[in-house]
Backbone:
């Protein structure tokens, strides 16, 4: 697998199709980290194994990365989903990026362009794993008071470092609601109310958009299980809109049958 | 001459209880899932064992993530101040690492040097630091490269070093330290010839701090900042976990005619940190913000405040979601030709 990725990266770089390949390389100790390969002879530094889970899609929108030229990105399923969602939200165009896709079965997927990517994502709808569903159910089974206590305890650890936001490819707003202060929608200080408002707001803004990559949870320095908020919404969307539905809660249709939205 | 005593590990619970009976809140590292955080404890049994470094530093005792500065009421054209927050009760922070104890000097330099910050001062006056030397370190630690050591006494009121399974050597360093001993003199015994050095972690020096400080002023326009920070996502994690980061943001919250003003942690990693009202941003991109972090700690602060703004605790690197390793980046800068 890793060899195939390296080969593909070499081809893309030496053929001039892309100027940079975003992938995973050796980090500190046994960590891996995002690397940005610009020369075919450096492609050998690319790694692909179980540690390579960071959602790299956010880098496609970063100024300094864009300045390097057209990019190819090593993309497992969550990254592919992110790109599809970001295209839907018109964050980049078809020609902006090449994809080295990797399936859940760990096979290289041939995705010649982003339309092929969209089709591939559509054919593999987002589903919670049984383990993830079990965790959501465990929370559901709590009484309201228990659940409240659970979230107050968890969110009380939040220091508002916003790593959850910064690590999420879907959190790209130039001005996040928490930074809008006329009027002030969200309480900024990380006291109980501020933390609670922040997490409710973020979960709501990601409803129907979160790709369940887990990046926010991994990024959080104090270990808040943020994924549980998003996964509950993912489960709700699947129940209420069906898994086939495109971008539930994030789409606008002029002919929507509900008229409050028009 | 430092007063040296010994105290049994099994006496620490008694010490905690005596300090509490004396009206002190005791904060200590407590394990919470995969994190170790300073929290108020009611006995020694709550204290986490066997970790290299706490997830967040003890800075919060002196500089909380968000703290009330004042309350106010507005009427048509007047604002009147209400009684401010109550005076903090005395705190003992137990289990601070020597690097973190050293970081207090950096925070002091910002909050007490040119300007005497009353909120900070009253906490700093009423806080006692009982540090514990490091017997273990990890690949992220680099205290010895920035002037510290796993047994450094700087910034501590008492430094404990475990010299056998159940005995701590206690160096009583300040009047606040002596005050702790005087609460429970019977728990302390006179020390013999014990030395702490052989009980400390081995943390090799990794770079020449002087060489770094010389190099940085000329490196401002280098390409290194872009190369190093390509993967940086611009969160505030590195600053928020850092014991020596001191930047804050002021937030007013109002409810009708009443309001509160808070001081909250802030980070130079955020794009908004330097955003002007006009829309102009002198640090437009992440690489400039990364440069600021390194320059501030290793060039501007040594120049202007005579302290290095980093104590080598390694937290920023451990916590960075994208593995920005500050030690590696500094070494690369020092070694670059
Ligand atoms: S990453 Fe964690 S600590 Fe930081 S703002 Fe998000 S939830 Fe809070
Ligand atoms: S909210 Fe978390 S899990 Fe969902 S897309 Fe963003 S980073 Fe990934
Ligand atoms: S260095 Fe790491 S922790 Fe600091 S802003 Fe960048 S990504 Fe966040
Ligand atoms: S910059 Fe990093 S290593 Fe230095 S004191 Fe701050 S958190 Fe610790």
Residues:
């Amino acid at each position: 697998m890793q060899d195939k990725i390296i080969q593909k990266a070499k081809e893309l770089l030496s053929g001039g199709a892309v100027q940079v390949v975003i992938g995973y390389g050796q980090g500190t100790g046994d960590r891996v980290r995002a690397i940005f390969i610009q020369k075919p002879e450096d492609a050998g530094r690319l790694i692909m194994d179980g540690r390579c889970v960071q959602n790299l899609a956010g880098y496609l929108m970063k100024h300094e990365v864009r300045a390097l030229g057209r990019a190819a990105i090593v993309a497992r399923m969550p990254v592919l989903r992110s790109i599809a969602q970001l295209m839907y939200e018109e964050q980049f165009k078809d020609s902006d990026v090449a994809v080295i896709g990797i399936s859940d079965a760990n096979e290289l997927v041939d995705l010649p362009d982003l339309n092929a990517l969209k089709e591939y994502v559509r054919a593999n709808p987002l589903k919670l794993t049984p383990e993830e569903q079990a965790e959501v159910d465990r929370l559901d089974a709590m009484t309201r008071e228990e659940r409240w206590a659970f979230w107050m305890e968890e969110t009380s650890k939040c220091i508002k470092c916003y790593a959850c936001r910064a690590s999420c490819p879907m959190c790209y707003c130039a001005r996040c609601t928490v930074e809008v202060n006329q009027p002030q929608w969200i309480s900024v200080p990380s006291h109980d109310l501020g933390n609670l408002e922040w997490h409710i707001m973020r979960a709501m803004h990601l409803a129907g958009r979160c790709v369940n990559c887990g990046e926010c949870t991994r990024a959080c320095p104090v270990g808040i299980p943020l994924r549980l908020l998003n996964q509950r919404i993912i489960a709700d969307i699947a129940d209420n809109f069906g898994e086939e539905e495109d971008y539930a809660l994030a789409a606008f249709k002029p002919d929507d049958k509900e008229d409050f939205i028009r | 001459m430092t007063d040296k005593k010994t105290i049994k590990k099994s006496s620490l619970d008694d010490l905690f209880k005596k300090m509490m009976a004396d009206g002190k809140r005791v904060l200590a590292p407590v394990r919470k899932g995969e994190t170790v955080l300073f929290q108020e404890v009611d006995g020694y049994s709550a204290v986490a064992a066997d970790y290299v470094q706490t997830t967040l530093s003890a800075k919060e005792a002196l500089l909380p993530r968000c703290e009330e500065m004042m309350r106010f009421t507005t009427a048509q054209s007047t604002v009147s101040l209400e009684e401010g927050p109550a005076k903090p009760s005395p705190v003992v922070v137990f289990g601070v690492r020597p690097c973190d104890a050293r970081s207090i000097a950096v925070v002091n330099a910002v909050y007490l040097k040119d300007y005497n910050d009353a909120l900070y001062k009253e906490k700093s006056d009423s806080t006692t630091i009982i540090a514990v030397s490091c017997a273990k370190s990890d690949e992220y630690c680099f205290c010895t490269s920035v002037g510290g050591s796993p047994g450094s006494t700087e910034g501590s009121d008492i430094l404990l070093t475990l010299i056998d399974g159940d005995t701590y050597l206690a160096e009583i360093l300040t009047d606040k330290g002596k005050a702790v001993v005087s609460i429970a003199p019977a728990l302390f015994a006179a020390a013999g010839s014990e030395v702490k050095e052989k009980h400390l972690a081995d943390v090799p020096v990794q770079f020449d701090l002087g060489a770094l400080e010389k190099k940085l002023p000329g490196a401002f326009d280098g390409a290194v900042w872009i190369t190093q920070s390509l993967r940086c996502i611009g969160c505030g994690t590195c600053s928020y976990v850092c014991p020596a980061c001191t930047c804050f943001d002021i937030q007013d919250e109002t409810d009708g005619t009443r309001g509160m003003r808070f001081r909250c942690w802030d980070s130079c990693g955020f794009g908004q940190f330097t955003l002007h009202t006009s829309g102009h941003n002198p640090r437009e991109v992440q690489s400039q913000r990364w440069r600021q972090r390194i320059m501030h700690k290793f060039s501007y602060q040594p120049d202007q405040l005579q302290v290095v703004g980093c104590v080598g605790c390694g937290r920023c690197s451990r916590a960075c979601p994208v593995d920005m390793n500050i030690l590696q980046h500094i070494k690369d800068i020092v070694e670059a030709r």
Residues B 232-235, 237-238, 269, 320-322, 324 surround iron/sulfur cluster (ligand 3) (CB under 6 Å).
